[in-house]
Design a protein that fits this description.
It is a single chain. The protein is an alpha/beta fold. The protein has a single domain, classed as P-loop containing nucleotide triphosphate hydrolases (Rossmann fold). Helices cover about 30% and strands about 25% of the residues. The protein contains seven helices and ten strands. Strands 6-7-8-3-9-10 form a six-stranded mixed sheet, with helices on both faces. Helix 4 crosses helix 6. The longest helix is centred in the last third of the chain and has 15 residues. The protein is globular and about 50 Å long. The structure holds adenosine-5'-triphosphate (ATP). The site of adenosine-5'-triphosphate (ATP) has 13 residues, from helix 1.
Length: about 230
């Protein structure tokens, strides 16, 4: 199925054990994210947050339970169609030894300069790039310019945004930047997130204050959930 994703996510009784280690990373997890809403997932290290992101991207399939997007079971989607419609900003940024432009447009067969610029603006890194001598042609990576942690993070965000995905997952990608940079990034994202379903995986409460709903995971289980005010 290569249908266009709208972005409503339903998770039902999801359990998952990593095949080689036998570690049960998720236990009977259920939640819904309506289309266009933002869910935050917090919890201690090893509580299963990234595993949930892995299952959404079908890096693994659940042992029990089900994930549906727009009421359609995940397994019924064409794999590459699914991947192209879900944007993920991973925990660890990976930059290629290439120009900033190609790092942002990574994985796209064709793209316009305007798309690159817009993604950079939305990720709040446009002004930084303009400040480099060669702008978007600046080489980064091993033999290129060394970007700061926060700049790398934002290039990685721009890479996810340029695909214009209906679902965006931020996997703990802001914990390495200071709170001021975080604020800048979140403000930049605000406009972009309006019609997208977002999942923010986070350690810091400041990252998730705008979330519509918060899940607290512990040892693979949801131990608490609610709004920011309620928790
Ligand atoms: P962190 O905040 O440190 O990123 P997390 O909440 O994202 O942690 P997960 O990465 O989902 O936690 O890990 C959940 C559990 O699954 C942990 O016990 C972890 O050791 C285990 N685990 C994670 N990835 C793998 C893997 N690829 N193979 C085997 N076990 C894994």
């Amino acid at each position: 199925d290569t249908r266009t994703i709208q972005g409503a996510i339903q998770v039902r009784n999801l359990s998952f054990t990593y095949p080689h280690t036998g570690i049960q990373a998720l236990k009977n997890v259920s939640f819904d994210i309506p289309q266009g809403k933002t869910l935050a997932i917090i919890g201690r290290t090893g509580s299963g947050k990234s595993t949930l992101a892995n299952l959404l991207l079908r890096m693994y399939d659940a042992d029990a339970g089900e994930i549906r997007i727009d009421q359609v079971p995940l397994k019924e989607y064409n794999f590459s169609s699914l991947r192209s419609q879900i944007g993920i900003v991973p925990q660890e940024v990976f930059l290629f030894s290439d120009t900033i432009r190609n790092n942002i447009a990574f994985g796209l067969d064709n793209f316009t300069e305007n798309q690159v610029i817009q993604a950079a603006k939305d990720a709040a890194v446009y002004q930084n790039i303009l400040g480099f001598e060669n702008g978007f042609d600046t080489s980064v990576g091993e033999r290129g310019l060394t970007l700061s942690g926060g700049q790398k993070q934002r290039v990685s965000i721009a890479r996810a945004l340029i695909k214009a995905p209906k679902i965006l997952i931020f996997d703990d990608c802001l914990s390495a930047v200071d709170t001021k940079t975080e604020e800048e990034i979140l403000t930049g994202l605000q406009r972009n997130m309006a019609d997208k379903t977002c999942i923010f995986i986070a350690h810091r409460v400041s990252t998730i204050k705008n979330a519509d709903h918060i899940l607290v995971l512990d040892q693979g289980e949801i131990i608490e959930q609610g709004s920011h005010e309620k928790l």
